[in-house]
Amino acid sequence: MPTSLQDTTTLHNGVKMPWFGLGVFKAQEGQEVINAVKSAIKNGYRSIDTAAVYKNEEGVGQGIKESGIAREDLFITTKVWNSDQGYDSTLAAFETSLSKLGLDYLDLYLIHWPGKDKYKETWKALEKLYKDGKVRAIGVSNFQVHHLKELISDSEVKPMVNQVEFHPTLAQKELLTYCEQEGIQLEAWSPLKQGQLLDDPILSEIAEKYNKTVAQVILRWDLQMKVVTIPKSIKEERIIANAAIFDFELSSEDMEKIAELNKEDRVGPNPDDFSVGFE
């Protein structure tokens, strides 16, 4: 079990990825995202997750630069957006992201959504970037089991990571099991269900028992489920509080209680129906 913010999981290609990081979805480009990234790094975070569609890669890059931490000590993720899927367009989108971030390489590059039929071509571009040493690891986001099977059947490199919506009411059991079998690291976006779980009575009761907040209990649950997690915040005190989860452990009984909250309930779109940007 991870015992600090710098602790890592080892991806199937040997690359070490922090268990915990900062997500910057909806953090505004400019000072807001720069400050969030700097606050996170100053307080021990080493992993930052952005995406082309968040339109804040330049601010993330600026925050990294101003943090004063050596590049090789950080783990930076971004994602190719739906409208850029395809082989050549993905390679071009990657270069755009890299230059906005002001970096020489990425730690992790993800296909943001599967869509219907372009992701295999897009994956070929990711394989090339990986072989060329421009990315240390490649993966996908929002892929269901059938997407992964389809992709793996026709690729040379298996995805190292699958980043999906994951929280106590969407526990993705089948997907988690499949990813574990295939050596693909599951990663949670919206681990707090965009704040919708913070008043849950069962979670509140568990939080009180450990003298923690509901958010801390959920984020701890992620780690004990062996799922990498990247809660988003722009407030320094929240960034610090989110990471204060390495000094306690949920009992198996409480893990079970949390598991019982699952009802396969999403806050984001269903990957099988989501086609924004592909049109």
UniProtKB/TrEMBL annotation:
Keyword NADP listed: yes
Boundaries of every NADP-dependent oxidoreductase domain copy: 27-262
Molecular functions (GO terms): oxidoreductase activity, acting on the CH-OH group of donors, NAD or NADP as acceptor
InterPro entries, alphabetized: AKR, AKR5G, Aldo/ket_reductase_CS, NAD(P)_OxRdtase_dom_sf, NADP_OxRdtase_dom
Coiled-coil ranges (or none): none
Protein known as: Aldo/keto reductase
Species annotation: Halalkalibacter suaedae
Sequence positions that bind substrate: 112
PANTHER family the UniProt entry points to: 2,5-DIKETO-D-GLUCONIC ACID REDUCTASE, NADP-DEPENDENT OXIDOREDUCTASE DOMAIN-CONTAINING PROTEIN
SUPFAM superfamilies, sorted: NAD(P)-linked oxidoreductase (SSF51430)
Site for Lowers pKa of active site Tyr, residues: 79
Active site positions: 54
Similarity annotation: Belongs to the aldo/keto reductase family.
Membrane-crossing segments per the record: none
UniProt keywords, alphabetically: NADP, Oxidoreductase
Gene3D superfamilies registered for this protein in UniProt: NADP-dependent oxidoreductase domain
